Amino acid sequence: MANDPLFLVAAAAVLGVAVILFMGIGNFGKGGDPKTSNKLMRWRIIGQFIAVALILIFVLIRRGG
């Protein structure tokens, strides 16, 4: 499974979402610009959509159908 390119792409997308999430939490925690926090959270939602879609595609392909 770790050699499957789609798995690696899905894992990278999940890690990307985690990075964006922590950046947003860090910006919020230090009292940063609300516009930046909103932009980061929008990017997080987009990233989550992509990550979930990639995970679903991976599962469908691995199940054979």
Automatic annotation (TrEMBL):
Occurrences of domain HIG1 (ranges): 1-65
Keyword Chaperone attached: no
One Pfam assignment: HIG_1_N
Source taxon at top rank: Bacteria
Keyword annotations of the record: Membrane, Transmembrane, Transmembrane helix
Family matches, as Gene3D superfamilies: 6.10.140.1320
Protein name: Twin transmembrane helix small protein
Regions crossing the membrane: 6-29, 41-61
